[in-house]
Amino acid sequence: MKAKTKMIHGGITSDEHTGAVSVPIYQTSTYQQKQAGNPGDYEYSRTGNPTRHALESVIADLENGTAGFAFGSGMGAITSVMMLFEAGDHIVMTDDIYGGSYRLMSHVWDQFHLSTTYVDTSHSEEVEVAIQPNTKALFIETPTNPLLKITDIWKMAEIAKKHDLLLIVDNTFATPYFQQPLSLGADIVLHSASKYIGGHSDVVAGLVAVKSDALAESIHFIQNSAGAILGPQDAWLLLRGIKTLALRMEAIEQNTKQIAAFLQEQKQVSSIYYPGLAAHPGHEIAKQQATGFGGMISFDVGSEKAADSLLERLQYFTLAESLGAVETLISIPAKMTHASIPPERRKELGITDGLIRLSVGIEDSEDLMEDLEQAME
Ligand SMILES: Cc1ncc(COP(=O)(O)O)c(C=O)c1O
Is Nucleotide-binding given among the entry's keywords (predicted)? Predict the structure, then answer.
């Protein structure tokens, strides 16, 4: 089944009891048992819920995995995956990672003696150097947030295999429509489904997909034990979002390419970060491992003052955290998504005060460009 068809026909797509074409919201905590100690398919909604199960089956399909898991947020998904490890273990992580993932590893898991080394995984040789005897996993994000760096997933899978590590990929930016890391050798793929998968700025959720039965069993055990599950109403919103994921991603990418070309012409813009541009250092790898470059673009206008004044003048660009929605969202990573990263570390990474991040939506691209033009004048 091709990706676009999977969005509609993947996983569990209707209700076996009623034939309802839209999987119903099973708003129940528990399930009647015919005999004590002999439950049916469902027993208690932390352990399993039919609406959540439909979502979990479709994300497994979209990611070419065998099992999926839905959590109350992307961070809930990452936290649950980290529970696979033990005190004393070590993780190698992409340096330009989402600020919340950095905060989780550096200020929460660190207290439980799960340590992390951050490296520029777009340079694979740096990854091998960072591996220690207690390293258990490589955790990468590609493209990264907000600098859109590209890491070679194949190469990371090779390194992970050689050193007996799990390869975990945060696939939030690329989406399963454009990139399927499990097919490129990753062991675990995860998403902030609050972004493109939901797609309408109306739900906070996390998803995980795996292809090994042993990992599926362990993650289900953690999901049920730690309990960071997604509720049925939010699971239903994601099921609905997924049906249009392919169409939204195509429209978003088309707009983003046009905006990237427009920004290249602007003298106020000193750098543009978009893997779809031939000059982007990760362009060739992105082309090989994904079928699209996505809808995230960052650009530098040189100073905090210039960034603030641009933001004030824009009409169609909603100033907000988050990304991946139908409306174009704009943010200043240094003050918003990446504020939890210390200033000196941001400087090292290249996240300047004049860096602006766009999550391009599905509006008419001419309106978006006219708006940018008037704001830049
Ligand atoms: C790449 C990435 N991963 C994970 C997360 C965390 O997801 P959530 O906000 O759903 O907890 C985010 C949130 O912005 C993100 O951008």
Answer: no
**What are 296-346's pLDDT values in tens digits?**
999 999 999 999 999 999 999 999 989 999 999 999 999 998 887 788 988
| Ligand 1 atom nearest residue 78's Cα | 4
Distance CA 71, CA 78 (A): 9
Q: What CATH number was assigned to the domain covering residues 3-243? A: 3.40.640.10
CA distances from 115 to 102, 245, 248 (A): 11, 36, 38
Q: What is the 8-class DSSP label of residue 367?
A: H
Which residues are bridge partners to 30 per DSSP? 44
Is the domain defined by 246-376 classed in CATH 3.10.50.40?
no
For 314-320, the CB contacts below 8 A with 24+ separation are 314/371, 314/372, 314/375, 315/371, 316/363, 316/367, 316/368, 316/371, 317/358, 317/368, 317/371, 317/372, 320/201
142 lines ligand 1 (CB under 6 A): no
- In short, whether 219's Cβ falls inside 6 Å of ligand 1 is no
What pLDDT digit, counting tens, does each position of 176-193 carry? 999 999 999 999 999 999
For residue 60, the cross-strand partners are: none
